[in-house]
Every structure is written in C-alpha cells, then in structure tokens.
Amino acid sequence: MEISEDGVLVDCSRLKSAVWKDFDRVKRGDACVAVCKHCKKKLSGSSTSGTSHLRNHLIRCRRRTNHDVSQMLASKGKKKEGSLTPVNFAYDNDQTKTATPNLIKYEQTPLKEGLVNSTAGNFEYKRSRFDLARMIILHGYPLAMVEHVGFKIFVRKLQPLFELATLDGLVADCKEIYLKEKQKVCEMLDDLPGKISLSVDTWAAKGDAKYLCLTAHSVDESWALRKKILSFIYIDPFETEEMVSEIIMTRLMEWDIDRKLFSMTCDSCPIHDNIVCKLREHLSQNRFLLCNGQLFEVRCAANIIKIMVEDCLEASNLTICKIRESIRYIKSSQSIHEKFNEMVQEVGADCQKSLYLDNPVNWNSTYNMLDVALEYREAFSRLQEHDFAYTMCPSDDEWSQASTITSFLKLFVEVSTVFAGSKIPTANIYFPEVCDIHLQLIDWCQSRDELISSLSLKMKSKFDDYWKKCSLVLAVAAILDPRFKMKLVEYYYPQIYGGDAPDCVDIVSNCMRALYNGHDVYSTLASDSQAGGTDGGNDTRDRLTGFDRFLHETSQSQNVKSDLDKYLEEPLFPRITDASILVLLRVLTFSTLELPLI
Prior knowledge:
The chain has 598 residues and is of the alpha+beta class. 53% of the residues lie in helices and 12% in strands. It has helices at residues 52-60, 69-76, 125-139, 149-158, 167-191, 241-254, 270-285, 301-315, 317-330, 334-347, 363-375, 377-386, 396-421, 430-445, 450-479, 486-497, 501-531, 535-543, 545-555, 563-569, 581-591; strands at 8-10, 23-28, 31-36, 42-44, 83-84, 87-91, 97-101, 104-105, 196-204, 210-219, 225-234, 261-266, 297-299.
C-alpha cells in the first residue's frame, strides 16, 4: 500500500534485510514508510508488512539499475570466511523432518568471459530464450513444458527478469534455430570441392508411422568424412513411388545438391529400387551424373549379408530349434547340468567354452551357439542314452546339417565384423570382402553335397543381383586405395570371371578413366560458373559447354600423362599400414599428385 505522508527519517542500519540498502525508512506517528532511494516511491515500511513487496518493487523499479535481487540477498547472507550454511534434512524412523545445519566451505568462482553476470546488469533475455529452445531440441523435451506450473515457478525463482515464452513463441524460436543451422549446412555443402553421396534409410516411429531419412555423405578439403542428416520424409501408404521420388527430388533441390550428387544408397527393398531408378532417370536427363549414372545406385552390403543369412537359418530351422531346446534343457537344473558335464568327461570333449543360448533375433549369437554346441555333439548323444527325459537331441544328419550351416555363418560373421569394426567405413574396405563371398559361393555351388549346393545356388541368385549393381563402384573405390589400385581387381577378376576377366578388367579401367575425366570437366565448369561475368558472356559459355567437354576429352589423346596415369604407375603403399584411405590420399595429393576429390 502506498503512503504519501511525510515523517521523521529513521536509522536503517539495524535492519537485517538487504532491501533496506535501497530504501529510507520514515516514521510518522506509529506508522513507518519505506521510500525508494531511486524513484522516491513510498511503500509500507512497518515491521508487520514484511519485505516481499519491497523486493518486488526493486525488480520493477525503472530508475534503478536492474540487479538480481536474489543474488544480492544471497551475498548478504554470506559468511565473512566465505562459507555458506545450507541445511541438510534428515528423516528419523517416525518420518519426522529435522533440520541440521552443516557448515560447508564455499569459494566463489569468478565469472568467465562471455557468461551472463546478472548482478552487473548483463542479463541477455533473447539469448536465454534461445538457450531454452536449444535445450528442448537437444533433449527432446515436450514443448508444452513452458506451460507447466512447476517449471514456471522454478524459472521465476531462478531469474525473475526472465519471462518464459509462450508455446507459439517457443515453436517460433525452434524454427529460427533450425533455419540458422540449415543455412550453415547449406554453406558447408556448397563449399565442398567434390561430389556428395546420399543414403536413404527407413526409420520407424511409434505405431505404424515410417519415415525416410536422407543423409548426405562427403569428403571435405582436408580429406575428412562429413555426414549430415538433411531431411525426414513421412511415408504415406497411399503415396505412389512416383510421388515419393518427386518428394525426394524436391528435398535435394531445396538443399541445392541435385547437381552435386554422385551416388545413392538405400535399403534393399523393391519400392526403394523403383525410387532409385526414377531419381537416376531424372538426374541423367540433366546430365548431373558421372559415367552416365552407372555408379549411382549402391546397395547396402550388410543388407545382402542379412538376406543370405536368413536363407541359411530358414534351411535349418528345425535343427537349430532342437539344439536351442537341448541347451535350454541342460541349463534348466543344476543336476542335469552336472550330468551333462559327466558325459563331457566320458567322451573326452576338449572345449573350454560353456554352452551358449542364443538370441533368435541376433543371428551372430545363433552362430556362436551352434559353434559351441558342435564341440559337444557327442556329449549330447551320450546324455540322451542316460537321460530318458531328454528327447530333443539332434540326429547325426541334423548335426551334419548344423555343421554345414555354421560354416556358412562363419564367413558372414567374419565379413560383418570387418564392416562393423572399421572406425571409418569407407567404400574401399568392401571390395575384397565381397569378392571373397563371391568366390566362396562359386565354390559351394560346385559342391557334391546337395544341401550345400542347393542353398548356395539360392543365395548366389540374390548375391548376383547385388554384384551386378555394385561391383563396378566397389572396384573403383578399391582402385583409389593406394595399397591396391588396379592390382586388386586384376587379382580377383580372373578367379571370378575366368576367361572373361580381361574384358571385365577393361570395363573397370575405362570406367575409372571416364570418372576421372568427367570429374575434371565438372570441376572446371563449376569453377567457371562461380567466376561469374556479364550476362552475354554467360550465354556464350553455356552454349559452348559441349565444346569444352569435347576439347577436354580430345586433349587426353595427347602424349601427356594425367594425374590418374601417374597415380596408377606409382608403387603401391605397404598393405600393413593401418591408416585409413583418406589419410593415405591426403598424403599422396599433398606430396606428388593432384588427384581430384571423387
């Protein structure tokens, strides 16, 4: 309540509250008035009125420099030694709360440069609003938390000067942050010296909702891998493949990377295959793709391995179930487990591994289960002879089948381990592993064992589709590895193609040269377009783009070695080096060659 009467000034030095530093206490009769030293406003100053209304006035006082009252009050209660007296609450057996003061040494740390100093009037409201929005984005908090009563109270007590944004205001802040970050990514993609590869993955949300995640992969000027998620596209079940491909193409044009696209990798799915074909047709019409789009579609290697593994597990499902139930029976009780150990001693099984029960969802664990169980196959058979309750022991033929399936799975586990174990999974590591799978399938198809040959033929029919679409791009990636170059292709292709190997090697070699020449032209034209000029000059240059390409290609016939020729003629790097291909190429280009970024 505001008081207007004047009175006698009273000494405030004995008053404990810190707010009296900003007020004069005036006494008139039995009533006391608090007069603000800054704006001269008069408020009730009696001892029964408290000081809350005085604190609130200091926060709103326009003639006073904005201080954080809570900080001022906290500093007032600080001990001379720099210690605070927090209260620790303990509960006894009767659940009654008791307060026990505990002195703790407190050393005030100075504010670092750039931090908000509330007591100095440096509170930044807009920055705090964006910090709140970033926190919600980073941790996935609900947007509606700004309307929660508890959160409002917490923020008001923490910083009275900060006014929480409304829900619509928070949404606007999040959008503004997104647009700023998007601009940064656009500039990064625009500054890339080479091409961009796109991966399309299917993400599942709660319920039946599914999304396509578009991720851009590239190599920057320092030969470091870059990866940025560009967009999420909701998959409407009623949308056609043509509509989905148009949506993806629109996203690529929004990011202005349609003309910089090199390849696209997606899950192995008939729908995705059709989408890739439509995108390749669209990009090829504008001549954005190198090598006429031969290297555009790249299948996921891990996915084709998973498909072949599913064929293996399906062919021996009954046998695997018997082995799984046998292990579960042995582990069901201590007595059965001890009896099994006796059988192990009798048959002399030399295995240090314990029986392993797999997780049917994880096929790697199924391989581990079969691998260990095969070591104890005789012990399983002996247990069946002594324990009539054990009825699910596999027969000799089923154990033979399990051994065959395990040999298949072993190859796939080893290859998958190589893929997953690489810190930088660049494309060059896939070619030798995929070639080994190809050679093993060829060998298994020629086996006299009916199970091995029939299962191998089934797997090879699916693998051949992957090999047809991806072998060329994987071979090119291997050539770019200074430890292999063309030698790795020349080593594997005779084993795979036999008499047709020379022609297949020439296809890879010609593709590599076409890729190099096309990238060189692309780099030249890109630099010319960035150089700018008058409108008339631009029109002339556009009309003579075909001439520039013709001139570059015909110039290759001269007796001048290109950087690619020099690279292929250089000795191979030692294969024992653990350095990634990006490190090797960085050293190579800085020392001897100017191989363009691909």
